[in-house]
Amino acid sequence: MDELITRREVMVVAAGGMALSQAPAHGADRASDASEKQTSDVPVSLRVNGRALTLHVDQRTSLLDALREYAGLTGTKKGCDRGACGACTVHLDGRRVISCLTLASRCQGKDITTIEGLANGDQLHPVQAAFIEHDGLQCGYCTPGQIMSAAALIKEGHAGSDPEIREWMSGNICRCGAYPNIIAAIRHASRGA
Amino acid sequence: MAMIGQPLDRIDGRAKVTGAAKYAAEFRVPNAVHAVLVQSTIAAGSITGFDLKEASDMPGVLAIITPNNAGKLTHPENVPQAVAGPLLQNKDILFNGQHVALVVAETLEQAQSAASAVRLTYTRGEAATSMDAMLGQAYPPKHFRNGARPPDTSRGNADESFATGAVKMDATYVTPIEHHNPMEPHATIAAWDGDRVTVWTATQGISGVQSTLAGQFGIDKANVRAICPYVGAGFGSKGNTWPPATLAALAARTVRRPVKLVLSRSQMYTSNGYRPRTVQKLKIAAAADGALLSMRHDGFSSMSRPSLGEFAEPVALATEMLYACPNVAVTHRLVALNAALPTYMRAPGEASGVYALESAMDEMAVALKMDPIAFRLKNYAETDPHENKPFASKALRACYEQGARAFGWEKRSAEPRSMRDGNILIGWGFATSTYPTNRMPSAVKIRMEKDARVVLQCGTQDIGTGTYTVMTQVAADTLGIPMHHIRFELGDSNMPPGPVSGGSMTVASVSPSVQAACRALLDKIKDRAVAQPGWGGQSRDGLQLRDGQVVGIGQQISLATLLEHGPIEAEAKTQPGDEKKEFSMHAFGAQFAEVRVDPDLGEIRVSRYVGAFDGGNILNAKTARSQLIGGITYGIGMALHEETLVDQETGRIVNTNVAEYLMPVNADVPDIQTIIVPNDDKNSNPLGVKGIGELPMVGVAAAIANAVYHATGVRVRKVPIRIEDVL
Fold first, then answer.
1. Backbone phi, then psi, for B535, in 5-degree steps?
2. Which of B17, B23, B269 to mutate: most A Cβ within 10 Å?
3. Of A179, B385, B481, B667, which shows the fewest CB atoms inside 10 Å?
4. Does the domain spanning B440-575 belong to CATH 3.30.365.10?
């Protein structure tokens, strides 16, 4: 993600601007440049789950909102919109990224895989199947992010032991507390991967 | 083979691992626009004006709704889940982070941007932000437990008998404000069609949403449809119908288009309740042999301004019933602050209260030089000592025994700081768990299609607990047909009503109606069979359904033939009987924690955990275990991580995000061993279940705090326990 301007950088700039305002109400958490009067229509062509897609987004749109609000791909979840919960994890050119901190307009020509694109047709990805078998989920809301992180870390060779999996999966919060089952699922899936 | 009890995969698993499961904000509603809330930046006072010029000139803005133009909403009567405000009905500011305006725009980005440009002026009032400073002005709750019982009770004379004790303790325990933080933020899409409104909303109670919105907008209940097939957990935060759901409907009515309102994570800290801070004073006295003589538990919990409603954390209820003690007094008091309204959070009352009680019991065991389990057993309550009733069932002794054996408790050396692994201090702690068994009325509709597949419907919810799965298991066993021929549908208020998914009561409440509806369907199938030509001599009760055939004496007919006349439908309603009058109904458990504490750095890690539970009959061993480990994980968070911090100057919560509101992550949670102590409790409800949503988190914080004492010799009387507390 080093070559991309992230939303975190945009927010830092905007937060500085916020301090100048007289009496801001803190409703809009997502700070933005309030002086900007024109809504930009930014065409972004990217491949999502192997399909070419051109989206007309706002220049402020995150990759997460582009997927959910513009492309209708709601499998990727918004938990915190601040890069702290991992629910929005997707693969960008094969690497896992936090889509809420990735600007959609910087994804021109990129190859995105979301939870909807992980299975091979009806054949679930081994991590998806293992999450079902080991009940690595309850409410299911963090699950797409957990699975996208897990699939990537197995590929990266970070699933060698339970402590290693625990450490590498600690960017994905599961409030239902399915962690021991998530570990079991990843351990299981990585053996076959 | 019976399906009930099997460790079956959850039916909704595939939808959840493929991203197909649709949560509230994810429904495609044509022409929908976006609303974003604006919140106050002061904690007390009133709004003197709005400067909306900049915001309303911004691109895409359709409406800015403030108390000046929101229109009047009525407060629904007799709807326990309705929240009085803030609903833009006046200009009073009662807490920091209160909703003061709503911006509606074509896109999410435009609405967020314009919301940040809304300017307010205020006159500031004096805000009460410190619970400790206000403790002297505590007052009794007016509607404790919805008026079901008084806030104070006593038996014997706790104060006089305290003086006679050979061993005594008198200490104060403090628990912080905690936030539920379900991973799915609150979200509602509202769409009006004339005077009918449909809401796709993240809720633990679609029936409550329906009644609340009907009351607020002055329309018939039948004109409100609430839909929620999946909810990204709630833990109590989605039990009430909080203002954002109402405000989404208000916005949709204003702009005459469907409106989607999703809270930001930050807004979740002042929009949908929290577990209030508690201050709990415990006084316990025992005879030299360990027999309890006196217990006093005075509980104070923080509150909003009273005009927003009332919620009292019922911290001392377990103290009344858990131990055989002749003299017990409990009180509950509220401390009003300029804060949002608190609410139920996983194991409301018991999570905070049993933390204090079981910490105090550990202190007593230490003072008595007794093993903590032996001390509990010395005072084991064979019957409910408060209500003077038998327990519907109680397998707590077996929980102690099986948990202790699995944990290896007999190898514990009692002296603090006496167990080490190299330099690291090892602590073993124990606590009891208990939670009431609840049940509410429910109704279920069932239909057997012409292809003999069965659909059941109930307006209940699956908050991640496995409702879809276990109800299908119950139906399969009752009907005697395979699970894959059955579909259980939920999450739509057009279906027959189910209760709020709270209080660990969904299975106890809904499964009896599933069973009854299945039996009613079987009766109708048999009725159809005996109406066949030549079946006149058969009695309905003598017939059996086997392998797709209705079998009578010397005769059989296929279901397919019977269904040629059309599908068969039935409906059933069930409700609790007199069991609460006859029995004291509770689930129980034993919690065992091992902590490792670095004596130089003060770092505390939970390294091993065993929980043994009497949750009654367990319908699905796999999903049940998930709830147990999840509850224990929630308790680990309470013990070591979670605390909402309020700036006392401004009344503003400073850690409104999941990076600074610490919750357990994967690396914080060890292997957890769960033991289910078999106990089919038919006195409580037809399926013999007790509910296991809250039970596993009760006592966890005490077990860990007691382990930290055992490891370090430092008795910390507040949670979360931090590094600096043990250095």
1. -100, 10
2. B17
3. B667
4. yes
Share of chain B above pLDDT 70, in %: 100
Q: Considering chain B, what is the average pLDDT of its residues? A: 97
* B245 CB-near residues (< 8 Å, 6+ apart): B186, B188, B190, B199, B201, B203, B209, B212, B213
Q: What are the tens digits of pLDDT across the range B170-203?
A: 999 999 999 999 999 999 999 999 999 999 999 9
Rounded CA separation B369/B380 (Å): 18
Q: In this complex, is the C-beta atom of A114 within 8 Å of any C-beta atom belonging to chain B?
A: yes
| Cis, bond preceding B512 (omega within 30 deg of 0) | no
Whether B694 is a known active-site residue: answer yes
Active-site residue, selected from the candidate residues B387, B569, B694, B724: B694
Chain A closest CA to B217's CA: distance in Å?
25
Q: How many residues does chain B have?
A: 727
For residue B103, give the amino acid letter.
V
> Do the domains at B134-178+274-438+581-726 and B440-575 have one common CATH topology?
yes
Strands (E), B561-684: 568-574, 586-597, 604-614, 672-676
Q: In B, which residues are within 8 Å of A119 by CB distance? A: 18
Sign of the alpha-carbon torsion through B527, B530, B531, B537: negative
CATH of region B134-178+274-438+581-726 = 3.30.365.10
Interface confidence: ipTM more than 0.90: yes
Nearest by CB to A116, which of B19, B465, B634? B19
Cross-chain residue pair B182–A139, CB shorter than 8 Å? yes
**Residues 6+ away with beta carbon under 8 Å from B20:** A75, A116, B14
| Cβ-based contacts of B608 with chain A (< 8 Å) | none
Calpha distance B207→B79 (Å, rounded): 10
Q: Which amino acid is at B521?
A: L
Residue with tokens 């505390």: B604
Question: What CA–CA distance (Å, rounded) separates B551 from B522?
Answer: 12
pLDDT at residue number A11 = 47
* A-chain residue closest to B204, CA distance: A139
The arrangement of secondary structure in A7-20+41-117, i.e. its CATH architecture, is Roll (3.10)
Pull the structure tokens for residue B637. 């968070």
A11 by DSSP, 3-state: which? helix
Residue pLDDT tens, chain A, 193 long: 334 455 555 444 343 333 333 344 544 444 344 334 345 689 999 999 999 999 999 999 999 999 999 999 999 999 999 999 999 999 999 999 999 999 999 999 999 999 999 999 999 999 999 999 999 999 999 999 999 999 999 999 999 999 999 999 999 999 999 999 999 999 999 986 4
Distance from CA of B630 to the nearest CA of A (A): 4
Q: Which residues of A touch B97 (CB under 8 A)?
A: 26
- Measure the CA–CA gap between B50 and B457, rounded to whole angstroms: 48
For residue A23, give the chain B residue with the closest CA. Answer: B119
Q: Is the pLDDT of residue B683 over 80?
A: yes
Give the whole-angstrom CA distance, residue B724 versus residue B604.
11
Nearest Cβ partner for A139 among B14, B233, B658: B233
- Provide CB contacts within 8 A for A73, sequence distance 6+: A48, A49, A67, A114, A116, B19
**Which residues from A are below 8 Å from B41, CB to CB?**
23-26
Residue B379: CB atoms within 10 Å: 18
Residue B276 pLDDT grade (very low, low, confident, very high; cuts 50, 70, 90): very high
Q: From 1.10.150.120, 1.20.1440.230, 1.10.287.80, 3.30.70.270, which CATH number describes the A126-192 domain?
A: 1.10.150.120
Peptide bond into B86 cis (omega under 30): yes
| CB of B50 less than 8 A from some CB of A | no
